[in-house]
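We modelled the chain as a single entity of 421 amino acids. Its sequence is:
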Amino acid sequence: SDPRMLVAKGAGLAANELAPAADPVRMEPGRATIYRAHNLLMINRGKMGCHRQADELLRKRDSMDRAFSRKQSVMPYRMVAIDVGAGTQDILVYEAGTPFENLTKLVLPSQTQIIGKRIRAATADRVPIHLSGVVMGGGASSEAIREHLASGLEVTASPGAARTMHNDLTRVEAMGIELREDAPADARVIELADVDPAGLRTGFHLLGVELPEAAAIAVQDHGYRPGLGNNDVRFDYLQSLIADGGRLEAMVFDAPPDGMTRMAGVQETWPGAWLMDTGTAAVMGALGDPAVRDAADDQGAILVNVGNMHTFATLVRQRRLYGLFEHHTGGIDAATIARLVDGLRNATLDPATFRMQFDGHGAAFDDAYRDLEPFQFVAITGPNRGIARGLGYHEAAPHGDMMLTGSFGLIDAVRARYAIG
């Protein structure tokens, strides 16, 4: 009646080989057998009538798989990809051997939207709030914090969470936020983070799906360096994507790049997660559309992702970036997109004056692009792609699902990293 013994017996394994202390490297010859055990478990878990023990075994299996993958530099069998935006978080549960079209997918409100609602509920209840957790993306959550302060209610915050409002903590205090680690007795504690592993695990469990321990997560990080504005740091980061060779597979990280505080917060919340910028994840994912891939592999392509807060566009050929720009979506229309795309195609956007001419973070070019024929093919993706619908650009739908473009890109980028070591 012990589900561990039943599964182990059915898979031809000794029960102690599934114990959490087992060495994943020692088990390599039986790694495929572990997954046969997993498949048998999923078939029989309903008959067992003991879902809790079955789910515990699945978590142990995922933990062992992640440890093995790190040690042996092979792609985990299962991984969750989360593309974190200002409006939604787009979630894909990757399983090796399963077509992307058949993977588990969810499009949920982003954490900034969820947390913003929690703060507004506290404002309506007229109670002070204490912000715990880590730095996360602003938007709806930051606006709700400002509204809470404006209503005359107290806000306290740990230094890590307070950096969501500004990386300069003296400026945070000037807003009226008191910095302290512990919450006042009468405060409602609200935890800040771009991802909520515990919440996702609970939600997936209710659907009969176990959340993988291995993760790849994309956020748009302005970064921070003392003495520079956030937009300056972001502009430097965009330029570095080109200056460092422009290879897409090099743009997924196992540790946050210097100064990328939001990525650091993600990895603090989800230890061991792969990290990527939302813009480059969308570029990588768009290549899953056959028309986009064919154009990018041949003559080159211009890829435009119109997100809820930012529009990110790139010149791509054979998985190498030759140029890019980033603009705020709130200040863009079809005519502006057409003008920017033409400037990108013809390399006439001036990186030195971009921020004076446009409402954005910057533009960058690889000098090698001037030796190529201008890229003619344009593909567009993102939740606000309708802004450019009249321009005649190809609407990319990788694996038949535009909203998961960034999540597909995360998985493909991690797979590429494991392939090259």
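As a brief sanity check on the tokenised model: Residues 1-31 have pLDDT under 50 and may be disordered. The radius of gyration is 23 Å.
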